[in-house]
Amino acid sequence: MRLHNSYSNEIEEFKPIEENKVKMYVCGPTVYDNAHLGHARCYITWDVLYRYLKFKGYDVTYCRNVTDVDDKILKKAEKEGKTPEEVSQYWYKKFTDSMKALNNLKPDIEPFATKTLGEMISINKDLINKGYAYEADGDVYFRVKKFPKYGYLSKQPIDQLESGARIEVGELKEDPLDFALWKKDEKFGYNSPWGVGRPGWHIECSAMSRKYLGKTIDIHAGGADLIFPHHENEIAQSECANGCKFVNYWLHNGFVTINKEKMSKSLGNFLTIDDMLKNYDANTIRFFILTNHYRMPVEFSDEALQAAANGVKRMLNAKQTPIDQNLDLTQYDEYKAFVEAMDDDLNTSKALAVLFDLTNKANKDVPYAYTLLHALATTLGFKFEKASLSEDEIKEKLALISAELGKNYSSMEEIIEERKNARANKNWEVADKIRIALDNAGIVLKDSKEGTTWELK
Question: Which end of the chain is flanked by fewer CB atoms within 10 Å, N or C?
């Protein structure tokens, strides 16, 4: 398996520290607002890596943190008259619901920053004792120039960084490049050896990855926007505190763009996951994201998502046969082609092409095709279960259809029967009206030798 390492900027053979075990850390959300399509891209990408590593037989420990102490959370709390904890807990639950709705697996470990303060303080103490950090009026700063490799991940020479660095009002840095490990905050802070304050953002991930995965980890992943300064700073503080290499493979996914601009909350051009799921299901969003290589930017458009919806529909409508649990999948060329694609730096677009090949073969009654299709598509996180409706949701759909057709229906079966009779009597106008009303309500009919059934579009 080969992965693109952002640190070396090369595709490298993946070799874990411990044979057959993988320690993987992904930067998680700052919980103060709705997750958007950019988050969906990030966490679907690393969900696929997590699933694929397990598919390959690795024992994976996947840790994804939750930043629940941050300037943005504090501002939201003040604005809404709530405590920071109330804000972070509310938005953490919303984030968790969004991830579940996207069919992302839950990480093995999901630590909260506020529950790891002791480890952050400990690392800061080590850095001060070793001369890599210093205290200034309740703040603690990292001495960037004491770490010669600073800027290597982001490929930014130190003199280039210096030209853009500055000291903000109230900061007591020795050098404009130095960054905060701890911030004085007497209103929302926690007790520390340097007075009441709270951690800098970067130290959180260094502390949580060390506590739960160890001083050196196999994979650290996140969005490309985190390369600088977040990941650059993580490397500096972790390697100086621990005296060893921090991460063996740095992986970064590309941006989601709208009209060629990166989608972000600060630009106000973001689409929330909840809004997306009103128009497209989780399989469609996942397909849209996996059609593109994870390192490349993804341009959002309704046309691209509609194409993804059609692709998913084609795959999930493959002719189904009973899953053969005893089938040796590894003997088939399609399995080998899928593994070859995924081993090539997660080439998901090539992997999807294999799934379409299997879809065609399943429809031609090739015996092993559906079992293999199901196994490989599930590895990419696709759900084969048909979406279902609650009783109340069915009543809402029936009310919509009844209003459009000017008749009161009590069940979908009643509508199907009426359409069947209309077609039998060659009353195509009535049959078409029923089909259009169902389509407008998001219902599609499936005609077969066994009869007609309905499902969600």
Answer: C
